[in-house]
Design brief:
With 328 residues, the chain is an alpha/beta fold. The chain has 11 helices and 9 strands. Strands 1, 2, 3, 4, 5, 6, 7, 8 and 9 form a 9-stranded mixed beta sheet that branches.
């Protein structure tokens, strides 16, 4: 009798363990996307995917680009994610051994600087930065619109400048890398040491500077072009400036975890993202060119943006070395 009870208990335990082990498994129709785009863009993407694939269970989770990459690096191919979306190219390069080979996809449609030579991701967007000013606030304080990076060091702008922290934000880092390339590291970091005296806040996110302008907490922000345009189109009295050194920018991409393209649902969703939704995103939110035949425009979006030299942006070792010098 005692042996029978033990056997029964063991069988019950095995059944419980089997039940729990099945809980975490996804069905073949489930597709999980880890996205680093802004919330309103993610909402549009998820809506369109569900319209296109009503029989698929599509889940989209937001993670900032650095945290997104770190999560995948830690989890490897065992991650819940199937597709990564809107992650900066440098981070995707660092995940090379986790990502599927996309060499079967046609990259001839992309501009040369938007092509990953390792064929582990396809370009999603080009996002640029600029010096954004709150014209009303500057006028209220009797201050002129700055015309150069050197102007931002003037004492009258003390406490009126916002920049995102390059240690936590890709937007902040593209400004650092742009000036390092233009001036050399020593001069660039010397400049940021002086600029810090006028900065009221180094925000943790790339959207922080423009948000500070909208809230009247800052008059000048080193921020994202497309975010500033969105606010201008919502009625904000902002102006976007590009100084002599040009507009810093980065390319983000979309990728698939290795082995997941074998799932038809994942392949269908990825193909629709890259063939259709990427272009729709450019038409509605972020029109800067990644395709050779692209001719998208958005009201009040700057034309012929003078881009900076961003050589070495995707080198994560170089990024770590530069950020070791960042004090703020």
């Amino acid at each position: 009798m005692a042996k029978r009870k033990i056997v029964c208990l063991l069988l019950a335990l095995v059944l419980v363990l089997l039940a729990f082990s099945g809980c975490g498994k996804k069905s073949e129709n489930t597709v999980v996307i880890y996205a680093s785009s802004e919330e309103y863009r993610n909402e549009y993407i998820l809506k369109r995917l569900k319209e296109q694939f009503p029989d698929y269970d599509i889940k989209l989770q937001y993670f900032p680009t650095g945290k997104n990459a770190a999560k995948i690096k830690a989890e490897g191919t065992n991650t819940e994610a199937d597709i990564l979306l809107g992650v900066e190219g440098g981070y995707l390069n660092d995940l090379d051994n986790v990502l599927a080979d996309l060499s079967s996809y046609d990259t001839s449609i992309y501009l040369d600087d938007a092509i990953d030579p390792n064929h582990k991701y396809l370009a999603w967007e080009r996002f640029s930065g600029g010096i954004i000013v709150n014209k009303s606030l500057l006028q209220e304080k009797g201050l002129e619109i700055p015309q150069s990076y050197e102007d931002l060091l003037k004492p009258e702008y003390k406490g009126l400048i916002s920049m995102s922290n390059p240690s936590s934000s890709s937007t902040g880092y593209i400004f650092v890398k742009s000036l390092c390339n233009a001036w050399g590291e020593d001069e660039a970091f010397s400049y940021f040491d002086r600029l810090a005296e006028n900065v009221y806040q180094f925000s943790s996110s790339g959207s922080g500077p423009v948000n500070a302008l909208i809230q009247g907490e800052a008059a000048i922000g080193l921020g994202m072009t497309f975010q500033a345009v969105q606010e201008i189109n919502n009625g904000a009295d902002l102006e976007i400036l590009y100084f002599e050194e040009g507009s810093p920018y980065a390319i983000t991409g979309t990728a698939v975890i290795d082995g997941r393209l074998e799932n038809q649902a994942v392949k269908d969703v990825f193909d629709f993202l890259t063939s259709t939704l990427c272009r729709e995103d450019k038409e509605q939110f972020s029109p800067e060119s990644i395709f050779k035949d692209q001719n998208t425009t958005i009201e009040n979006y700057p034309q012929n943006i003078p881009y900076s030299d961003m050589t070495g942006l995707d080198d994560l070792e170089e990024k770590d070395r530069l950020l070791d010098q960042w004090k703020y």
